[in-house]
Specification:
single chain; 85 residues; mainly beta; 2,3-Dihydroxybiphenyl 1,2-Dioxygenase, domain 1; 2 domains; four-stranded mixed beta sheet; three-stranded antiparallel beta sheet; 1 helix; 7 strands
Length: 85
């Protein structure tokens, strides 16, 4: 269990690394946020913006890597993830 700004974060390890996580936060509705691993978080976030996505969270560094969140009305939200190596 890791302390996070919006509550606690439970990391799930599946073999050789992080496989997922559950975070406690004050949303008004249940939220499922799939993550997609990318090699260059800034470039992929900007490419999503160019394709018409709204950037809900600009690239941000965390303990294990960088993430951003993008949204398209017809496709929902996804998080882009670049792990630290």
């Amino acid at each position: 269990m890791i302390a996070a700004r919006c509550g606690s974060y439970l990391a799930v390890e599946l073999g050789r690394g992080l496989g997922g996580g559950i975070v406690e936060c004050g949303t008004r509705r249940p939220l499922w946020l799939p993550y997609v691993e990318v090699d260059q978080i800034g470039e992929h976030t900007e490419r999503a913006r160019q394709l018409g996505a709204r950037v809900l969270l600009e690239p941000r560094e965390g303990p294990a890597g960088w993430r951003s969140v993008v949204s398209m009305p017809q496709a929902g939200e996804i998080a882009l993830w670049q792990p630290k190596r």
